[in-house]
What we know:
The protein has 250 residues and is α+β, with helices and mostly antiparallel strands. It has two domains: 1-47; 58-245, no CATH class. 33% of the residues lie in helices and 24% in strands. It has helices at residues 2-44, 113-128, 144-151, 231-245, and strands at 58-62, 65-69, 83-84, 87-93, 130-137, 161-162, 167-171, 181-186, 194-198, 207-214, 217-224. Strands 4-5-11-10-9-8-7-6 form an eight-stranded antiparallel β-sheet. It has a three-stranded mixed β-sheet with strand order 2-1-3, with no helix packed on it.
Amino acid sequence: MTTQAASSGTRRQRRRGPRAVPTVTFAALVLVVAAAAVFVSYVLWPTWPSQPFDAPAIPITVAGVVFDVPGAAIRKTVQRHPGQQDRIDLAFQWPALVPPQPDGKSADKSADNTAVNAENAAASETENRRLFVTIAALGTELPPLERLRSIYPRYVEAQASAGPGGLAVLPFRPGTPYAGEDLVYVGANPEQFFARCTRAARNVPGTCIHERSLDAAEITFRFPRDWFGEWRDVAGGFDRLLMQLHPQRN
Length: 250
């Protein structure tokens, strides 16, 4: 009886022995595969570079005019492709005239009032340092200079007031298509630089639009009215930006 039990125990040990080896091997294989997966995931996981890519400008044609547009300046994702487009909407940092950096706003909803106020102030300052540009087909509208000469005079008040740096401010009459706006222009030479501007109301600052035509395309610059204190720098900046977007081609 004892001999039979010992024999049975020996047989069970022999049966168990060979099974232990595949179990250990399988566990080791799982660890190797898992380690490889972690390594591959680490290598291939998409990361955002600390510095923006120095990517070439995108050639975009609007109304038959070719513009070289920085991809990061395009505000709408669907417009970030080369070729013919009806319009493009852009944003630039002022006065650097480079695409804006991604917003670094905090998503922490539990921030105290001091932090919130500081963040709002920073956001307001960022907005005040941003230039928005739209390029679209002129279509059936008159070019900006023609509007200045023949359209705007029909709707403005008779008397202009003095603005900063030799500018003149001429309000549009109530009940006209431009009611609530002012025509701001260089007093001695309106065609040198002019814009239509809204007036500041409570917490909403005034904004201006300056328009230029380039063949069949119209370029609209939208900027804070506060910039008119340095209007010569503003006009020069618009000239430089337009040369960047539409360099002279031989």
